[in-house]
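Re: that backbone. Tokens:
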């Protein structure tokens, strides 16, 4: 596969991941999972799938190396940061913020004119 096609597929995957995470964490009071628990479930299920794929690929043998708890904690902190951001920050926050600043600037200009 060509590099531009692989790049496009990666970008589409990241966008789909973002939309699916936002959908899973939205819902207001009806939301049944908090961002931290969502991150834990997400990483644990990903680790399980990777372990199963590795076992299938190696003909029944599991992973031979040992992981690092520090790396696992860093990954959790990274993923949790995104999960909490999905809850607290709206999608496309840059554009609405720019519009609010423009509206506030316009309102101040009208107030000075009075």
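Recovered sequence:
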């Amino acid at each position: 596969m060509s590099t531009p096609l692989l790049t496009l597929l990666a970008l589409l995957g990241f966008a789909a991941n973002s939309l699916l995470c936002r959908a899973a964490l939205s819902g207001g009071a009806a939301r049944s999972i908090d961002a931290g628990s969502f991150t834990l479930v997400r990483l644990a299920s990903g680790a399980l799938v990777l372990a199963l794929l590795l076992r299938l690929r190696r003909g029944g043998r599991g992973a031979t190396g040992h992981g690092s708890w520090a790396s696992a904690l860093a990954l959790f902190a990274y993923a949790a940061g995104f999960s909490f951001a999905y809850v607290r920050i709206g999608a496309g926050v840059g554009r609405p913020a720019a519009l609010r600043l423009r509206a506030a600037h316009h309102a101040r200009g009208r107030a000075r004119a009075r």
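The chain has a mean pLDDT of 79. The chain has four helices and no strands.
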